[in-house]
Design a protein that fits this description.
Layout lengths: L1 H17 L10 H19 L4 E5 L12 H11 L5 H10 L15 E5 L1 H7 L6 H8 L6 E4 L3 E2 L5 E11 L2 E12 L2 E12 L1
Length: 196
């Protein structure tokens, strides 16, 4: 037992002295979930700064869903600088399909999840759908759509899509790159991908 322990200690010392990098551990699902909520909080605060949000209950990377994420992402990354490859790869993998948005997130503000059926009901009234929407959700800046967040391995760079509609011809979608500095997520860059 003593020889085995001594061998392990010597192996660690030799590895440390030779400069061989120690493998970085992969973030756990709990870490990723916690950081994703923190990214959403920073993103919403920066883009919309409201006390309450209405968020679509399913993730998307464009106003039409998750259709052509790969080519859009390639164009966005050309317009951004310093996007880690692992951040881009993580974004691609995590957004291959739509996912439910959690109803119990801590994003620093209250929010309501809105399904596609509920949105259709709001806008199929025999009157102005946006007027009806704001009667239901007076504090909301419109309807937000979020993607899942792509991260680098050290969880200090994040890429996310956020879109918002606030009236018939008032909306836009952005891919946003955030960086974590001193424990706080900050918007670093954003690229608009659509506007109405």
């Amino acid at each position: 037992m003593f020889k085995k322990t001594l061998f392990i200690i010597l192996a660690v010392i030799v590895t440390a002295c030779t400069g061989t990098p120690v493998p970085v551990s992969t973030p756990s699902a709990e870490q990723m979930d916690s950081e994703e909520q923190a990214v959403y909080a920073a993103l919403l605060r920066n883009l919309y700064s409201a006390s309450s949000y209405v968020i679509m209950d399913t993730t998307a990377t464009s106003p039409t869903g998750v259709g052509d994420t790969a080519s859009t992402l390639d164009r966005v990354i050309q317009d951004m600088h310093s996007v880690d490859q692992e951040t881009a790869d993580s974004f691609r993998v995590r957004n291959e399909a739509a996912h439910p948005v959690r109803s119990d997130m801590n994003i620093g503000s209250s929010y309501v999840l809105l399904s596609q059926v509920e949105m259709s009901q709001i806008f199929s009234q025999n009157r102005d759908g946006w007027q009806f929407f704001y009667e239901q959700y007076p504090e909301a800046p419109g309807i937000a759509t979020l993607s899942r967040v792509g991260f680098n391995d050290t969880l200090d760079q994040a890429l996310v899509y956020a879109g918002s509609m606030s009236h018939w011809l008032a909306g836009a979608g952005y891919y946003v790159l955030l960086k974590k500095e001193n424990g706080t997520w900050m918007v670093d860059q954003q690229v608009m991908t659509w506007i109405s």
